[in-house]
Amino acid sequence: MSKNKNAALCPCQWQENVLFAECCGRYISGAALAPTAEALMRSRYSAFVQEQAAYLLQTWHPSTRPEHLDFEPTQWLGLTVLSAHDSDDDHAEVSFVARYKINGRAYKLQEHSRFVRENGAWLYVDGDVA
Ligand SMILES: [Zn+2]
User: Fold this and answer.
1) High-pLDDT (> 90) share of the chain, %
2) Which of 21, 36, 59, 91 could cysteine-pair with 87, CB 3.0–4.6 Å?
């Protein structure tokens, strides 16, 4: 991990050349709440890249949250959001593909995730892997 990650490009690749500090960094640091489920999902991808377990657990709904997170040595290659859909004001679904490598072998995770907003904060509930 770079020491100067706030000056680095955001891993979520939301926009070309967007800086981490101006994108997911604001949510992971706690400076702001993710305004949409998609923004939360992107920030959770970036948190996986940076192994920010506390943020991942904090943004996980208590009903499905694991006790703790272990990170495998993973080379994250990129995120593509396929669709984002609000079911109502406080429920949303996001489909995405995340690509990564473990021990040099490439993997693709495609997931349809559900999110709920509680007390103004979007939380990851669960997802179906495609
Ligand atoms: Zn980002």
Assistant:
1) 91
2) 91
Residue 3 CA to ligand 1 centre (angstroms): 17
Task: Pull the structure tokens for residue 65.
Answer: 């949250």
The contacts of residue 25 (CB under 8 Å, 6+ apart) are 5, 6, 10, 19, 46
Task: Report pLDDT for 130.
Answer: 82
Give me ligand 1 centre to Cα 102, in Å.
22
For the residues 66-93, what does the mean pLDDT come to? 95
What is the spatial distance between Cα 95 and Cα 41, in angstroms, rounded to a whole number? Answer: 10
- Residues 12/34, Cβ–Cβ less than 8 Å: no
Domain of residue 46, CATH code: 3.10.450.50
Q: Which domain does 23 fall in, by range? A: 5-129
Q: Name the β-bridge partners of 107.
A: 100
**pLDDT reading at 49 higher than 70:** yes
